[in-house]
Amino acid sequence: MSEDRTTPSEPRRGGPRRRLRPNVGLDARPLGTPRTAGSAHPLSARTPAAAPHAADASKATEIDEFENAEAADAANPGDSAGDGQVMPWDVAPATITADEGHPTRRRRTVAELLADVPDDAVIVTRRLTKKYGEFTAVDKLDLTIRRGEVFGLLGPNGAGKTTTVLMLLGLTEPTKGIVRVLGMDPTREPLAVKRQVGYLPDNVGFYGGLSGRENLRYTAKLNGIGRREADAKIDELLHEVRLEDAAEKKTETYSRGMRQRLGIADALVKSPSVLILDEPTIAIDPSGVEELLVLLRRLVAERNLTVMLSSHILGQVQSLCDRVGFYSAGKLVAAGPLEELAKGEDHVVELEVGVDGPPTGIDAVASTVPGVTSVKPHERDERLRVVTASSDVAAPLATALAAQGLALVHLRRRGTDLLELYRRYVPEGIDGRAR
Amino acid sequence: MAAPADTARRTDAGRARRSERAPSGGWRTIAAKELADHITSSRFFVLLLIVTVAAIVPMYFISSDISASAPQLAGQPALFLALFVVGSPSLGNVAVVSFAALLVPLVGIAFGFDGINSERSQGTLSRLLAQPIHRDDVINGKFTAGIAVIAVMITTLVVVVAGLGMIRLGIIPSPEEIARIVVWAGATVLYASFWLAFALLLSTVMRGTASAALVGFGTWLGLLLFGQFLLPLFANFLFPLDKANANAYLASTTAQATFMRISPSTLYGDIITAVLNPNTKTVLGVGNLGQYVSSQQQVPGLLSLDQSILLVWPQIVALVAVTVVLFALAYVLFLRQEVRA
């Protein structure tokens, strides 16, 4: 990246930043304004010369910079890491580096920010920030979601999840930073993005006076799908979400779970390649949640969708997500596959152990097991002990306890559920807005 | 590794580009749905009933009066129009047009006050805006649907009143009279659209449908009851009235006239007077000096329809202008609003 700096004699004019700012009125029709080169699709700018470092080979005009930025997005080299690994961009320490020896602090160009984006990235945000007055709802978010991934965005209420989702859809304008969905900027090409992204809003609503089928038909019409094609599609989707029997009923009679399922059908009417679900499991009873997750799991597998879902209910989405990100006070505090996050940074294993009888019996036995580094009382349950070890010592520990005549009544490895991960990564706690 | 991803990208790009070219027309879909909602709503039937009854009653009385004095009225020009503009003494001289002018704002408000805020409270707004439509399609579609349903209602009303009038009077209106009635109906739709734009503005600004309805109907009732006192009051507040001082008096009167020039009810009143009464050669509300002078040198006879329209052309333009201004305000506010409440 360091060769990407311009010389002081050729200062950047901050062009890309200015260009990023969309028209007033968000996705309002750009009243007769011609499409600028900056809005060209990545492909159109994909030339052999369009490597990231090419940005300053050309004259650093606004348009050149922007096009190269898009090209960098398309022609990214750094895609060597395999799937399922924590990518460097997952927990990117998003610090803007001021130019050393350069007196003025220079903002990074779009090209630089998008330089590490992999080829198959579907949703990319870089230093994405949204401010409402003084309050920062989303703070310098760096997110990369690749094709076919199911990404879970987890965080307490008010952590900025919905704001992020709205920015991905171009429904709200970012204060700063970059968003790319399928290589497009949602603030500049909202229609193209919205054509390919299905969205289930938080607290989804339907026109109460219309039946479920009529509601879906309206969505299909708004997407420009022909009547016959739409009807076939709607029949199929209603079958998928098991609402065929209620299809002709008015949606005002639907239960919360039914509405949520109809919402998923609604998001799929346009045959999207990306699905964004905002709190899909909120306010549904446990059996409804299970049903919904089964449905989602099947749909994702069948349709090869890229999914981003947000939730504040831990555990519910655990089984669905390939990767999760923890959100707190507008910041992404950690992201990666669950098992990677579960290991933590120091790669220790913590076991909760309980025996039939006083827990003091455990202390002596556990410390003799090889690998165990400490035995501490449990934080909340005095009948239990927490055994820390450098590897999984569950089996030898159980054997050792049994040898001492202590009947094991509780043995659980920590860090395997989201609640604990959550405690680790979001220190402020689950409820209450972190400040 | 690069090749398949490359192809996928190209496909995406192709899709995006194709769809960008496709015409959107989202407002038409929204307008069609809104219109269907309006026409099948109980609101529509209740309002149609109220407005029709309110128009038939004065028509019934005045047609009786006309029939009773038929011999004297023989040869009177534009007699059919009297059905609309003349009030019967047995009904306090209230004519069909007066009732219409009274109730039209009600219709306009009724079809607009929950336009945007109901989408918000139902939770359908974010779902709607996540579809590939422009954001202004929503408000444009709703305004169009509102105008359409108002037009349907007023057309029904005019046809019913004119039809019953023909039966009761036994007079067939002349083409000129029909044309005048059509122009009046058009002006009425325009006046209702003004109130529709006002109601849409309220529905954008106010989160609750109930509070938007209260403010809307409250404004209508308030202007109905106190409107005529409000104007002089406001003018005198700006330019304290001093009858001894000619300049102050003039300033106050000028201010009043200026307000009246943009007051939709005055504008609409002038249009009715000129369009439905071919005898009208001057509209005093917003008349200018030239019109005043010409009215002093009155030549007996009737104006043709185009001359009548010419007489109130400024009023028509002004009514369109105030409607557009209100709608533009609602439009801009809606576009700048956050999707999330």
Features:
heterodimer, A: 435 residues, Rossmann fold, Alpha-Beta Plaits, 2 domains, six-stranded mixed β-sheet, four-stranded antiparallel β-sheet, 13 helices, disordered N terminus, B: 341 residues, mainly alpha, globular
How would you describe what is shown here?
The complex is a heterodimer of chains A (435) and B (341). With 435 residues, chain A is α/β, with parallel strands linked by helices. Chain A contains 13 helices and 13 strands. In chain A, strands 5-6-7-3-8-9 form a six-stranded mixed beta sheet, with helices on both faces. A four-stranded antiparallel beta sheet of chain A has the order 11-12-10-13, covered by helices on one side. Chain A starts with 14 loop residues before the first helix and ends in a 10-residue tail after the last helix. Chain B is mainly alpha-helical. Chain B has one domain. The longest helix of chain B has 35 residues. The N terminus of chain B is likely disordered. The interface between A and B is large, with 51 and 42 residues.
How do you describe this structure in short?
The complex is a heterodimer of chains A (435) and B (341). Chain A is an alpha/beta fold and 435 residues long.
Please describe the topology of this protein.
The complex is a heterodimer of chains A (435) and B (341).
Chain A: H1 15-20, H2 62-74, H3 110-113, E1 121-132, E2 135-146, E3 150-154, H4 161-168, E4 176-181, H5 190-196, E5 197-200, H6 212-222, H7 227-240, H8 256-268, E6 274-278, H9 286-303, E7 306-311, E8 323-328, E9 331-337, H10 338-343, E10 349-355, H11 360-368, E11 372-377, E12 384-389, H12 394-403, E13 408-413, H13 418-425
Parallel strand pairs in A: 3-7, 3-8, 5-6, 6-7
Antiparallel strand pairs in A: 1-2, 1-4, 8-9, 10-12, 10-13, 11-12
Helix pairs in contact in A: 6-7, 7-8
Chain B: H1 2-21, H2 26-40, H3 42-68, H4 70-73, H5 79-85, H6 96-110, H7 117-122, H8 125-129, H9 135-169, H10 175-205, H11 209-238, H12 246-262, H13 264-276, H14 289-296, H15 305-311, H16 313-336
Helix pairs in contact in B: 2-9, 3-6, 3-9, 6-10, 6-11, 9-10, 9-16, 10-11, 10-13, 10-16, 11-12, 13-16
